[in-house]
Specification:
It is a single chain. This protein has 255 residues and is α/β, with parallel strands linked by helices. The chain is 44% helix and 15% strand. It is built from 11 helices and 8 strands. It has an 8-stranded mixed beta sheet, with helices on both faces. A hairpin with a 5-residue loop joins β3 and β4. α1 packs across α11. The chain is globular, with a radius of gyration of 17 Å. The two termini are 16 Å apart. The C terminus is likely disordered.
Length: 255
């Protein structure tokens, strides 16, 4: 199962990606998480420290589509993946280390090629923590063209919901037929607003992850949310996991 986690900047895609990955691991699944942020931090949310996260090698495009294209998925994960304390294997597909370094198109091509490979030999689920916005869906071929399902992360704001609506439009054009709407960082007084905005813009709202002081503290400290912390958040994540598995199951197992 190949899952793209998408949304406007600041909605919490990395946090949601990490929580979903950990939930799938807890179910005994093999999970690869790919960080496509040019300033990668997903490793921190999965239990690596800052030095380990910074040391993650970036997967070069040539590994997938160039002179070393015969590298197996297992060898690729061994060379460029890092096993995190959470049990999730993490990879970095993009990184900007210097000013005026040019566009990151090559990194997006790498992700697209990686998703097109037979990852099932090494993983059950691949989660792509996408860069902010919708440009990755508009690139030639679409970075997420091989995704089975998109997780549309939204905070309670019109801008976030409009971004999700535009994402759905582009996903249809790419042939992606499944998506799940996830409200994130929603206080009790914001749930009705988020539901109304989604209804007005034709965006599904399948799961709402509540605002959480525990998540904020973990994010500030650069550590994972404790598995025993914030029961309401974990209950919502479990609901998301069920939705992802239920949505993707017809695509992976057939009738």
């Amino acid at each position: 199962m190949k899952i793209g986690v998408v949304g406007k900047g600041g909605v919490g895609k990395t946090t949601v990606s990490a929580l979903l990955a950990r939930s799938l691991i807890a179910r005994g699944r093999r999970v690869l998480a790919v960080d496509t942020d040019s300033n990668p931090n997903l490793g921190l949310s999965l239990g690596l420290d800052a030095e380990q996260t910074d040391a993650l090698p970036t997967v070069p495009r040539s590994i997938i589509v160039g002179s070393r294209g015969d590298l197996t998925v297992g060898e690729l994960m061994a060379d460029y993946g890092a096993r995190t304390p959470s049990g999730v294997t993490v990879m970095s597909a993009l990184r900007v280390n210097e000013a005026a370094a040019g566009c990151t198109c090559g990194g997006h091509a790498t992700v697209r090629s990686l998703l097109g490979e037979a990852l099932e030999t090494e993983t059950d689920d691949t989660i792509i923590d996408m860069e902010a916005g919708i440009e990755h869906l508009s690139r030639s071929g679409g970075t997420l063209a091989h995704a089975d399902v998109l997780v549309l992360v939204m905070e309670p704001s019109l801008k976030a919901v409009i971004t999700a609506h535009r994402t759905i439009t582009l996903a249809r054009e790419l042939g992606i037929a499944a998506w799940i709407g996830v409200g994130n960082k929603a206080g009790e007084d914001q749930r009705d607003l988020l539901a109304r905005l989604c209804a007005q813009n034709g965006v599904p709202l399948d799961v709402v992850i509540p605002a959480s002081g525990g998540v904020v503290r973990a994010d500030r400290e650069g550590v994972p949310l404790p598995s025993t912390g914030d029961a309401a958040v974990w209950a919502a994540v479990e609901s998301l996991t069920e939705s992802v598995l239920r949505t993707a199951r017809p695509l992976t197992t057939g009738p």
